[in-house]
Amino acid sequence: MDEQLLGLLDLNQREYQIYKSLLSLGPASIRDIAAQAGINRGTTYETLKALQAKGIVSYQPKGKRRFFAAESPDRLLQLAEEKRSQLQGLIGRLKTDVIPGLHHLKPDFSAGNVRFYEGDDGIEFVLKDILNTVAKQQQRDYAVFSSKAIRHHLYRPFPNYTKQRIKKGIQVRVIALGEGGEDAELSQRKWISTQGEVDASYIAIYPPKVAMISLASANYPVAVVIESEEIALAQQIIFNTLWQLL
Question: pTM, whole model, 2 decimals?
Answer without folding.
Answer: 0.60
